[in-house]
Amino acid sequence: MSPSISLSLLHNLESSLSSHDFSLLSLLFLLSGAFAIGFWAWRRFAEKKNSPPLPPGPAGLPLVGNLPFLDPELHTYFATLAMTYGPILKLQLGKKLGIVVTSPATAREVLKDNDVTFANRDVPIAGRAAFYGGSDILWNPYGPEWRMFRKVCGLKMLSNHTLDSVYGLRRREVRRTVGYFLLRAGSPVNVGEQMFLTVLNVITSMLWGGTAQGEERESLGADFRQAVSNLTKLLGRPNISDFYPSLARFDLQGIERQTKGLAKRFDGIFQKVIDQRLKMQRENGSESLDGGEENKDFLQFLLKLKDEEDAQTQLTMTGLKALLMDMLIGGTDSSSNTIEFAMAEIINKPKVLRKIQQELETVVGKGNVVEESHIPKLPYLQAVMKESLRLHPPVPLLIPHCPSATCTVGGYTVPKGSRVFINVWAIHRDPLIWRDQLEFDPERFLHSEGNYNEHNFNYFPFGSGRRMCVGVLMAERMVLYSLATLLHSFDWKLPEGEKMDLTEQFGIVMKKKKPLMAVPLPRFSDSRLYE
């Protein structure tokens, strides 16, 4: 068929269609579109109608929801609400929906059954301000960069092999603390402050080889601990900017401004040690980064990793600093607070103190210094640590999770993007799980299964699943070795006329509201045991 004949047929076909036919086609098109939209809306309505409801929760006010009713001690406030509304409840926090989980079964659904869905964090503005935009292992979204950070920390910094290799650092700093307490024997000492500095020196030695000594040790410990405490307090404080994003630019509570000020202080410390290390590298060439084992530390490893061009996920200088911040903040405050709470509970229970010391005398001996190799042979001391973590978990609500998709937990809908709190503090004190739940009784861990692992949701002080605390091994070693040494070397009592106050102060990291001031009394006359 020739082109001229084809064009003629097409022209005749167009001419045969009347305006009436075009109107009919247009009407059919509109009806089809309306039907498609109606069917989609019906499907959405049917899905919504058939999906589980949102969890129950207290009534709120227009616009603000439940924000005006939040108690500063969120862990106890949420536990009280759970007694009324059940193991999963909702709170309208301005524009943000909060979901509170308060039972082993619902915690398992979040942290195990739907682990990938809940693997992201709901990053507060303070978290972004403090941790380099949230580009660290704590706040980073689940993905390649987070997996790289986790692998770096787990394999290089916090593995059993690495921790074994730096035992000398832990021993040196704990022995220095023993010497500090000996010089102040018979006088009250701030236990938490000194243990914070001990852990700080261990971690900075592992990171870049720096420790504080002499007068600097005492002043730095107080100042640095206050800075860390202020930062964790800001991270745990409800922030209007998080609940009303449109108001974030005004920073009405000043939380972002204060956090940036503290973060700048830490960044100055990091930049100083990085500049010093890079200067050494320029002056000494590659040997400064490839020297002997005695010169290696975590910063050296990270600087080498940053320069690897063939790495699947590139480590940036920002990411490097964010990792240093994680190790410094996450490792110091939680471990020292755990030691302080454990010491307070032990001093408050003289029978527990005597039993620990009897175990230490049997395993270590009165004429010997405690070594980490003794720890596996001290089951009662391990039970004491576990019981202290049960009553006083370091992060009482864990770090909030944020589902990447809408899902069902406990028979209720948990919407995508909500802020999910897991009240591990309340689970650890649930009378349906624990006998005499408020009593400090280490014996319970000698006769029952109380280890922290991925299958036990009655007891998980370090979280569970993909976002479980990466520093568990380090914390366990530091806490047990410190407690064993302090309790073997000294008897402890409160200052005359003082009563033990075990009140907690809520924060993203929980601390003792009133610092533990206790009096160390040397147990041995041989001065070599205090060197």
From TrEMBL:
Its cofactor is heme. Keywords: Heme, Iron, Membrane, Metal-binding, Monooxygenase, Oxidoreductase, Transmembrane, Transmembrane helix. The keyword Membrane applies. The chain crosses the membrane at residues 22-42. SUPFAM superfamilies: Cytochrome P450. One of its GO terms (molecular function) is monooxygenase activity. Heme binds at C469. It comes from the Eukaryota. Belongs to the cytochrome P450 family. PANTHER family: CYTOCHROME P450, FAMILY 706, SUBFAMILY A, POLYPEPTIDE 4 (PTHR47951:SF3), OS08G0547900 PROTEIN (PTHR47951). This is Cytochrome P450. It comes from Eucalyptus globulus (Tasmanian blue gum).
